[in-house]
Amino acid sequence: MPRGGTRATLLPLSPPTGPPQRLRLPSDRHDRMAIVLRKTAKGLSEIETRTHRLAPRLRSALIVIDGRRDTLALARLILQDAEATLRALLDQGFIEIVPGTAPAPAPAALPTTSAAAPAARATVPFEQRRREAVRALTDLVGPIGEALSLKMGRAKRTEELQPLVELAQQVIANTRGRQAAHDYGVRFGADADG
Questions:
Q1: Which of 4, 115, 158, 166 is 20–30 Å from 100 (CA)?
Q2: Count of CB atoms within 10 A of residue 155's CB?
Q3: Which residues, including other chains, have CB under 8 Å from residue 84's CB and lie 6 or more apart?
Q4: pLDDT at 106 over 70
C-alpha cells in the first residue's frame, strides 16, 4: 500500500479453517474498521523454533503481530508491502483473525500545540508517562526501538527518561520522519514534571 494513500484495500483471505475472510488494511486513522490479527499455535512455534524457515520479511512481520494491534498499526510497522506480507502469513496459517474483532475506538486526542503539551503532561504520573512513551516508540518504530524501549522502561525519574526520549525522537525521525518525531517530542518532551 503506498504511504499517505487515501484508499483502503480489501484482500480476500482464507484462514486455515472456516469460511473465506477479507483482510482490510485501512489507509488512515479515520478508517477504523480494521481487524486484529494474532499468532496461531503454528506462528508461536515458528517464533520459538524457526522450523518453517520463514523469509526475514515474513518473520519480522510475525514478530510484531501481538493480538492487540489492528491492521492499520501493523501496516505502519511492516515496511515492505504489508498487504502481501499479512496475506502470506494468514494463508500459511501463521496468523489468524481475532474472532469478533470490533472496530477499534478512536484514539484519544493528543495535544497539538507545544503550549498545551506541558499542562497535559504535568497531570500524568511519571510511571504512566514512561509507559506511554515506551508504547508510542514501539508502535512507531517496532523492533528497531526494542533496546531503547527497555532502557526507557528502567528509568526511575524524569531526569533519566528525558535523554532517552530525545534519543527516541532521533530514531523516530530516521524511521518515520521529522513530523512524527516532533509529535512524539511534543507529547513526551523535556519540560514535563515527574
A1: 4
A2: 20
A3: none
A4: no
**Which tens digit of pLDDT belongs to each residue from 45-67?**
998 898 889 988 899 899 899 88
**Nearest residue to 101 (alpha-carbon basis) of 40, 37, 10:** 37
Q: How far apart are CA 46 and CA 51, in angstroms?
A: 6
Nearest Cα to Cα of residue 141 among 112, 177, 182, 111: 177
Q: In this structure, is the dihedral angle defined by the CA atoms of residues 75, 79, 84 and 86, taken in order, positive or negative?
A: negative
- Please answer whether residues 38 and 15 qualify as being in contact, where contact means their C-beta atoms are separated by less than 8 angstroms: no
Q: How far apart are CA 63 and CA 53, in angstroms?
A: 14
* Residue carrying the nine cell digits 523454533: 49
The distance from CA 162 to its chain's CA centroid, rounded to whole angstroms, is: 22
Report helix angle 56-64 to 41-49, nearest 10: 120
Compute the residue count for the chain: 194
Q: Global pTM? A: 0.41
